[in-house]
Design a protein that fits this description.
By secondary structure, the chain is of the alpha/beta class. It has eleven helices and eight strands. It has a single domain, classed as Alpha-Beta Barrel (TIM Barrel), CATH 3.20.20.
Length: 298
């Protein structure tokens, strides 16, 4: 089912989760165990991240196809502009569609760590809106597209108004849904959503949540992507040893509270970044599953 139909037809919010392709046999075996746990819940769709620059690109499509066929659940590949020419976009998307994909998460991707700025590949794209435009021109309604939103502003564009303008470009180019980057203060999301609506963005805006079960790990991630962990939450979590059971449960409880408030304020769904670990997601969904739609079939 395409994004545009999934969210329009849903009687309740959609639960979605994000995975990444494992790089080892041990990782693949672990992910299979995690999937069996995750898919006992009403997951509307899974998304599979994309290794820019050749890292896990083929694995993204392989994992997407495998999950969809084995578990009969809608599974969505990501794609980024990093290192991608127009022809490589066509090759990737042609294969995704041949494998049964109806949806794609279309992203610009991050600049390399040692680069001063993002540099598009020859005959590639500098911005996600250009990728979305190209995909709509090439594939029309064969693909339904999700794009990223940044409740605290993009790491390279801290001004929120400017980030909203960039988001509107992506939506105007043909995106059907917005999935946000992680955030930990719902006030940031509500402000972002209000500004987006005022800017004329009418597609569903889905909050992305990453439960904190190891503070040091998420602290590094937020510093890289420009998000922040509010001081009260930092104090709560750092009162416990890093990655301890107490810290994990405190982080999960905070994520449940965060998602619960969002669900009480008319979000179309919740997208959970799992880091290939079902532990936190399972606890969240156990507490909140009455909010979510039952899982559709692929």
């Amino acid at each position: 089912m395409k994004f545009r139909d999934l969210y329009r037809q849903a009687a309740r919010p959609i639960l979605s989760v994000e995975l990444f392709p494992p790089k080892t046999e041990k990782g693949r075996a672990h992910l299979e165990q995690e999937l069996n746990q995750l898919l006992s819940y009403p997951v509307g769709f899974l998304s599979v991240t994309y290794g820019a620059g050749g890292g896990t690109q083929a694995n993204t499509l392989e994992l997407t196809k495998t999950i969809c066929q084995r578990y009969n659940v809608p599974t969505v590949p990501h794609f980024t502009c990093v290192g991608a020419s127009r022809q490589s976009v066509r090759d990737y998307v042609d294969q995704a569609i041949a494998d049964g994909a109806e949806n794609l998460v279309a992203l610009r991707g991050d600049k390399p760590k040692d680069a001063d700025s993002f540099q598009p590949a020859p005959d590639g794209f500098a911005y996600a809106w250009q990728l979305v435009t190209f995909l709509k021109q090439e594939y029309g309604d064969a693909l339904s597209l999700a794009v990223a939103g940044y409740p605290e502003g993009h790491n390279e564009t801290r001004d929120l108004k400017t980030s909203i303008q960039h988001l509107k470009q992506k939506v105007d180019a043909g995106a059907d849904v917005v999935i946000t980057q992680l955030f930990y203060d719902n006030a940031d999301f509500f402000r972002f959503r209000e500004m987006a609506v005022k800017a004329g963005i009418t597609v569903p805006i889905v909050p992305g949540i990453l439960p904190i079960t190891k503070y040091s790990q998420i602290d590094r991630i937020t510093k890289l992507c420009g998000a922040k962990i509010p001081e009260p939450l930092t104090k709560l979590l750092t009162a416990f040893p890093d990655a301890s059971a107490d810290q994990q449960m405190a982080g999960i409880a905070a994520a449940i509270d965060q998602a619960g408030e969002l669900l009480a304020n008319d979000v179309p769904g919740i997208h959970i970044f799992t880091l290939n670990n079902s532990f936190a997601t399972s606890h969240m969904v156990e507490a909140l599953r009455h909010h979510f739609c039952q899982r559709p079939t692929a």
